[in-house]
Amino acid sequence: MDNGNKIQEGIIVETEAYSQEEEACHGFNKRTKANQTLFGEPGLFYVYRSYGIHYCLNLVTDKNNFASGVLIRSVFISQEEERVASGPGLLTKKFQIDTKLNSLKSYNNNLLKIYENHININNEELVQTTRIGISKAVDLKWRWYLKRSRSVSKRVKGDKSPKLQNKLQNFKY
Predict the structure, then answer these.
(1) What is the predicted pLDDT for the residue at 173?
(2) Nearest to 57 by CA among 17, 24, 97, 112
(3) 3-class secondary structure for the chain?
(4) pLDDT reported for residue 161
(5) Which domains does the chain have, with CATH numbers?
(6) Among 57, 93, 152, 168, fewest CB within 10 Å belongs to which?
């Protein structure tokens, strides 16, 4: 995102998945004006306000007419305080994301883009666990985070934050 004349960039280090087949999804059992983007083409941004407090950024996945998406929970930003974008509200605040970005194509707009990065990550470096802040479908392990990142919003019990080794937290981008 262009913040003044400075382009903000980072690495997604934590996500959660949602599907219309489970009760925690905004598209479970109904399509409304508010959630219609979630039923759209894969690659769209779905942005909504959570509890009237902060915005959440999602990427629509799967297929048209099927509510499915990935919530971007945390981003590591080089040369910034490590927790500046750790959590959906902090992330959207840092990147100046609000509902004006709702329904934009993630790959074809001039405001916010998600690019593939070629960081070598193996399955042992990812933690798969339950989602945060929901009251339904709480047992689904549909949250993933990068174990080596200090920018994760919440770690599972017993998983300690890694020691700070350098400013780039072992990332090269």
Answers:
(1) 47
(2) 97
(3) CEECCEECCCEEEEEEEEECCCCCCCCCCCCCCCCHHHHCCCCEEEEEEECCCEEEEEEECCCCCCCEEEEEEEEECCCCCCCCCECHHHHHHHCCCCHHHCCCECCCCCCCCCCCCCCCCCHHHEEEECCCCCCCCCCCCCEEEECCCCCCCCCCCCCCCCCCCCCCCCCCC
(4) 87
(5) 2-146 (3.10.300.10)
(6) 168
**Is 90 exceeded by the pLDDT of residue 75?**
yes
Residue 164 — very low, low, confident or very high, per pLDDT cuts 50/70/90? Answer: confident
The reported pTM is 0.91
- Collect all residues with Cβ–Cβ distance below 8 Å to 137 and sequence separation of at least 6: 22, 23, 24, 25, 131
